[in-house]
Every structure is written in C-alpha cells, then in structure tokens.
Amino acid sequence: MSKDGVNAAVPVAHDATPAVDPRLIVRQEGIAGYFGEFKRRLSSGELGSLPVVVALIVIWAVFGSLNSSFLSAQNLSNLSQQIVGTGMIAIGVVFVLLLGEIDLSVGSVSGLCAAIFAVLNVTHGVNEWVAVLCALAGGAVVGLIQGFFFAKVGVPAFVVTLAGNLGWNGLMLQILGASGTINLSGKDIDSRLYSTIYGQTIAAYGVAAIGVLLFLAASLLDAKRRQAAGVPSRPPADIALRTVALAVVAFAAAYTLNQYKGLPLALLIFLIFIVVLDFVLRRTSYGRQIFALGGNIEGARRAGINVAWIRISVFMICSTMAAVGGLFLAAQIQSASQTSGGGNLLMNCIAAAVIGGTSLFGGRGSTWSALLGALVIGSIQSGMNIMGLSNAIQFMVTGAVLLAAVVIDSLSRRTQKAAGRA
Questions:
Q1: What torsion, rounded to 10 degrees, do the Cα atoms 131, 132, 135, 139 define?
Q2: Helix (H, G, I), strand (E, B), or coil: what is residue 182?
Q3: Are residues 239 and 98 in the same domain?
Q4: CB neighbours of residue 334 within 10 Å
C-alpha cells in the first residue's frame, strides 16, 4: 500500500506468453503435433473411440486365430447385416445417453412397431409404405408420451421407461392377437430393405468413393471457413492423412463385401442414418443444445435452451429409431411375434451405445458409437456361435465387455476432472 493509503498498482508483464489451448497444437503444427496431442488426450482422459477400436481388433484377432472362417468374407458380410437392427436402436439410445438419461423401453417399442407394421400390412392389407409410416409414427408417439412424463411431469426417465417397457410389451401382445405371430411375406418393403444386396462390384466401391469424397469436401470446406474466420484450421497434410485413412478402411470394407455377395442395402441405410444424425449432433444448433444439456443442465437452462422441448424431442428420436430397428429385426426373422423386442435386445442396444464410447454421464458420445459398439457385440456373438459356445458364455463375455467399457468411462471422467477438462 502506498503512503497515501491507495493500493499500489500491480505491474503487468506485457511480455508474458499467452496460454495456448493444447487442442490447437495439432492444427497449428500439422502432423508433427499429432504425437503431442495424442499424449495430451491420454493423460487428460480423452480416450475417444480408441478403447473400442483396440477391443474390436483384439476380438477379431482372437476369433480369427481360433477359427479362420470368422474373418471370411461371408461371415463379415453377414455380420454387417445382422448388426443393423440392434445398431439402429443403439443410435437412438446414444441421443438419450447424451442427456445423461436412460431409456429402458426401446426393446418393447421395437417389438410394438414391428407388430403395427405386420398387422396393418399382412393382416389388413394396408399399403406397405403406409404401414411403415404408421409404425414409425407409433414410435414417435411413444417417445412423445414418455418424454412428456419425464420433462413436464418430472417422473425420472428410469421409472417412465421401465413402466413403458412393460406397458408397450403388453400393447404389442394385444395388437398381435390370439395367434401371437404374424409372418411377413418376404416380398414386402421391410423384407426387401433388409435382404437386398447389390451384387455389382461398382456398388460397394462407388459408395466407398462417394463417402471418401464427401469427407474430403467437408474437411476442405470446414478449413476454408475457419481460415476466413481467422481461427486455426486443419492443414492440408492433416486433411490428406485423415482422408487416406478413411479411404483405406472404406475400400477394404468394400473389397471384403464384394468377395461374397456385394453391398447389403441394410448396411447402406444404417450408414446413412449414422452420417445424417451425426451431422445433426455436430453441425446444428439443436445438436449443440443436446450436448450442452447433457454437460450442464442448469447452465443450459440459464443460456435460454428450452430444456423440456430438447428432452421430449430426444426421447421421440430414440423411440423412432427403436421403431426403425424393430422393422429391420422383424425382416431379419421374417415375422413379428410375442418374443419381438424381448430377450437380451434391450441390454445389447444399451451396451452397444456404451461400449462404442458414449458416456453414461452425458455430454459425450457420437452416433458412430452405435456402429462400433454393435460391431463389438455382433463380433462376440458371431465368433462364439462359430465356436459352438453356449448363450450363457456369450452373456457373460458381453457383460464383462460392458463392465469394462463403463469402468473406462468412469476412469476417463475422473482423469478429466483431475486435469480440469470436465
């Protein structure tokens, strides 16, 4: 304090080096900054999809070494079709998990919507497209009802969806009637969407090329917009490296599919849903509001986000995706029955989202988590079926993988808090 009682001004070090966000290193230094960025992410608990990718490689290596038919083009092609139903439902689960909530009704909703389609189209002869739209609308209405009780009435999502799991299953049984099973014709639109395979070699390679080109165009456009705004952007070498990596994966998948029958339409539809909904989450204000709500609900409310509407809409998306998945599952077994949506479907869908990298604590995840998680679960089931192991072993192994994913998520979150990143 100075003699006249006035606090002396604290000198400011004008030559102090401003702090730089380490996440910008990779964009400022290009490929040379990747190693440092990778170490920073690991030390701060930002693991991303790394654990599930490593797990998938290990699973494929183990089963491939035990039985060579596991990595055959036929088995991998069949696997790409078989995961579609579960994966579609898991996409919806990802949206709910981003809020830090859970939906325990997706299995029953998928069975209910499959029953709606089967009864309308097969029993009553309603146009197949109208029947599909009615099934999807049924899923959206279910989500609206459950979302209303959660967002407006204040009933915990766990309780609402647990009640829905029982109630929608009962409604499905009522709709199916005394027979309990309705067989699909195999010529309906639902069956065709699942079973159609494009045998032309150009189909799989063409889709791979289009995907790579779209990724490259989007990356270049994003870099251009960032440069125009005066913010760090990915250098050309960075974009080139990412594009080449994607091209290797895409064309390897296309080559594998072409070694058997070709490109399954169901897989293509699944990938389209993933890309479109990932765009919604990452590139729209609505998607950013979902992440904001999952990260800090009170902060989101004070920022002017309509919390109730976001919650209701997310549950509608989840139930609608459950309806889509239910239609593909019905096409897979060519029927809608009393067992539709039952068994371990609910657990597999939630496990796929979590194993794929979506956090149970909200605010972190991606629609690509559904693909990765479904691949892990589907690979475990496929490998064990080839080896002739019982369902009991499959359940135990899948449960162990799910527990490992949750443990990694918890440890990652704890590490991020310690590093000041969460």
A1: -160
A2: strand
A3: no
A4: 15
Structure tokens at 56: 């998938």
Which pTM was predicted? 0.88
Q: Does residue 204 lie in a domain region?
A: yes
Domain, as residue range, for 226: 200-260
Could you tell me if residue 181 is inside a domain?
yes
Q: Three-class SS of residue 375?
A: helix
How many structural domains comprise the chain?
2
Task: Look up residue 50 and give its two tokens.
Answer: 């790394």
11 exposure class (CB count in 10 Å sphere: 0-12, 13-18, 19+): exposed
List all residues 6 or more positions away from 409 whose beta carbon is below 8 Å from its beta carbon.
354, 359, 360, 361
Sign (positive or negative) of CA dihedral 289, 294, 297, 299 = negative
Q: Are 397 and 379 in contact (CB under 8 A)?
A: no
Q: Which value, in Å, is the radius of gyration of the alpha carbons in the chain?
A: 24
Mean pLDDT over residues 89-115, rounded? Answer: 96
Q: How far apart are CA 61 and CA 40, in angstroms?
A: 29
Lowest mean pLDDT among 21-30, 67-76, 311-320: 21-30
Report the alpha-carbon distance of residue 64 to residue 76 in Å, rounded.
11
User: CA 188 to CA 4: how far, in whole Å?
Assistant: 91
Q: H helices within 262-389, ranges in order?
A: 265-283, 285-295, 297-302, 307-333, 345-355, 368-387
